[in-house]
Amino acid sequence: MMSEAAGFHHIPVLFEETIESLNVKPDGVYVDCTSGGGGHSMAIAKKLSGGRLIAIDRDPEAIENLQNKFRDMQWVTIVHGNFFDIKRLLGEIGIDAVDGVLADLGVSSHQLDEPERGFSFHHDAPLDMRMSKEGMSAADVVNTLSQQELMKIISEYGEEKFAPSISRAIVRARQTKPIETTLELSEIIKSAMPAAARRDGHPARKTFQAIRIYVNGELDGLGDAVSDMFDCLKPGGRVSIITFHSLEDRTVKQALTPLSKGCTCPRSFPVCVCGKTPKAKVFKAVAPSENELEENPRCRSARLRTAEKL
């Protein structure tokens, strides 16, 4: 077993706000879709008495850490899988409805801080970025996709205005030799950007974000996954989702907002004929406090969105 001392560390973002948003009942059933370092999971588990927690993660290192962390808590079930399959994962352990679902999207502090995982442009490491350690790696992406495909990924997932020149530079560089490490890629990105842009934050940040999102399919079907989380709730149950950039936040908002809409009849109709009623109460998004921003600058763009099933 890998202990936390062996290196699995994660700073839970919007910690108090998230636990409060779930309105945890001692005898309730809760799901942490991205349990990771177990910070949010532990806080939920400690509030339970007669209840149950299902802690899900796709990262095998996280699963090993969670099995160690919760080995004395029989009411916690560890599940290795992708929360995009939440209905199937819960069905396989005999659960059809829950009182709360939490998802902390994006990459964890542990994944960023472990150089060999290849997520960070601050360390030289093999270009990997796979949360599940399976499938296509970041090296595969930059060495095999066409310039047009790379430009689309960097532009859409990184919202990077220099995507055309960066994608051209990647294709040009790989003609000499394969791009194999994080610092190699970072230097190629820098070389493709004007000096002024290189001074505005780290020049590789947006491109690394884009490639990571693509490698892990973080936005592919996220809206459907949010809908599935909501479907798994009992009446009065809550789903709380933490996002870390505008693309995630927009997708989650677009999935939750329609649930709070009721009648769609034209205003000219004297009575409702559509029969539609709101399915959810959607709460206002919560941002990190100034104190949290000082302690953890990485969380600046984080947002917490919560919806309660009516």
Task: Compute the number of structural domains.
Answer: 2
Q: How large, in whole angstroms, is the Cα Rg?
A: 21 Å
CATH second-level architecture of the largest domain: 3-Layer(aba) Sandwich
Structural class: alpha/beta
User: Averaging pLDDT over every residue, what do you get?
Assistant: 92
CATH topology of the largest domain: Rossmann fold
Q: What would you call the quaternary organization? A: single chain
Write the element-wise H/E pattern from the N-terminal end onward: HEHEHEHEHHHHHHHHEHEHE
Q: In which order are the strands of the major sheet placed? A: 3-2-1-4-5-7-6
Give the proportion of residues in helices: 25-40%
CATH superfamily of the largest domain: Vaccinia Virus protein VP39
Beta-strand fraction estimate: 5-15%
Largest sheet: 7 strands, mixed
Form type: globular
- End-to-end Cα distance, whole Å, is 42 Å
Number of helices: 14
- Give start-end ranges of low-pLDDT stretches: 1-7
What report would you give on this structure?
It is globular and about 65 Å long. The protein has a seven-stranded mixed sheet with strand order 3-2-1-4-5-7-6. It starts with 14 loop residues before the first helix and ends with a strand. Helix 2 links the parallel strand 1 and strand 2. The N terminus is likely disordered. The chain is built from 14 helices and seven strands. It is an alpha/beta fold. The protein folds into two domains: 194 residues, Vaccinia Virus protein VP39 (Rossmann fold); 84 residues, DNA polymerase, domain 1, CATH 1.10.150. The longest helix is centred in the middle third of the chain and has 12 residues.
